[in-house]
Amino acid sequence: MATRDSLIQVTDLKKYYNKGAIKALDGVTVNVERGDVMVVIGPSGSGKSTFLRSLNLLEEPTGGSILFDGVDITKRKVKNAEGKIVNLDIDQHRQKMGMVFQHFNLFPHMTILENMTLAPIQVKHISRAEAEDRALALLDRVGLKDRAGAYPIQLSGGQKQRVAIVRALAMEPSVMLFDEPTSALDPEMVGEVLEVMKQLAHEGTTMVVVTHEMGFAREVGNRVLFMADGRLLEQGTPADIFGNPQHPRLRDFLSKVL
Amino acid sequence: MKISAAGFAKVFQYADMFKEGMLCTVYLSLFTVILGFLLALALAVMRMTNFRPFRALGLDRDGHLRDGGFLLLLSRFNPISFLATVYVEIIRATPMLVQLFIVYQVVFNKNVINLPSVTVLGFLKLNRFLPGVIALALNSGAYLSEIIRAGIQSIDGGQTEAARSLGLTQGQNMRFVVLPQAIKNILPAIGNEFVTIIKESAITYTIGVQDLMSAVKAAQAGTFLVLEPLLVVAVMYFCLTFPTSKVIAYFERRMSRGDKR
Lengths: 258, 261
Known about the structure:
Strand content of chain A: 25-35%
Structural class of chain A: alpha/beta
CATH topology of chain B: MetI-like fold
Radius of gyration of chain A: 19 Å
Strand order of the largest sheet of chain B: 1-2
Number of helices of chain A: 9
Distance between the termini of chain A: 34 Å
Helix content of chain A: 25-40%
Structural class of chain B: mainly alpha
Shape of chain B: elongated
CATH superfamily of chain B: MetI-like
Distance between the termini of chain B: 56 Å
Largest sheet of chain A: 6 strands, mixed
Strand order of the largest sheet of chain A: 8-9-10-3-11-12
Oligomer: heterodimer
Order of helices and strands of chain B: HHHHHEEHHHHH
């Protein structure tokens, strides 16, 4: 089933609460390939965010497996290169997964530049000068180079989210996860953030995006997943999902949001 | 009861006792603050450790986290945190006076820990002063640890999620992201606790520590005046606590500078 380019293979992923009384994720199987721009849509409470957050174990699944670069990150013990059983180093995997949150989660006590260089310096152990050079280059790409010395509180919502995106990119992740990145923004700022994401997609960045922006899903996504009640009900190309929806829940959902 | 200038004049004959009492109160508070803060840090760290000896019981046969039940609860049990919690709850739920007497009469009993009757720092009787400091520190450590813990927990969980998703370890997250923000938040509460310690230290006169309050007792007994010595000591306590809170307010303002546009 796995293709050669498979990056994340999710199999029968489950997240139950209260002994299974609440099923936030009820058996989701999906395969993220390199270069995919996978957009996850669905009504609120459908498990989209739980699914995304499970991918880098911000939520601990109660069942199933997530193979990331060939390693099952849901297991606490893994075999290392020499075949020894060792504890899984989740921090090491998380560096390779950039995450962008609905509420930005910039560090308010640090400048934009410090926000961006903290992890490269502390986790990747690159020099401060090099980290700052890279950070400034990234900020330049999103048009915020002149704001490097500012504090997050001095930025608008759209600017904060653009910083959050390049902060994640500074770790050079192999996949970017977006958890409703435009939902907390004023309407006039949604465009600037989507523009940055579109640019990333065109550069071939692998992305998994949970969003309510149907325009983005249709235009930029190469695969769209529809989730409801913790299940993956339908997946396909944007043309399939929006042009020829099969599942009644999807038709119902689209009739409400389009 | 009337207040007279002559009454105050009589009280001022005890000026040396008040002076020593004030110094004693300052020493008491300083040592209590230092010891109490160290204890509070230790307690806060204990309460937030991730030491879970039965962690493995929370996983099912496939190695996944269980979704409920007794074994999941047991796997979350942290004996270190439990001990610290029990300590804090007992201290908070019993009177300071009882704690002081337990330390002085039971722990520093001649048959348990026998302190030599020497004077330290010029005029302080070690066998009274030390139990006083320890009792106060044991008490304020519990309160301070709650303040520190609440400060850390007041930081939005999104901060930790962002830090961890960037690959920072739990320790790096604490050091670079959570603690710098938490300290700013808890500074006012810590300042309050320092002021409280200065005032609470008055209780140690009951075990014979020669602090400000004991000077009052001496002056009252010698002059048969009730009100004047109390007024004098009230002013003296105010002179200690008010500047302390102002100094802390100053640091608070300095630290919150980055918050403003």
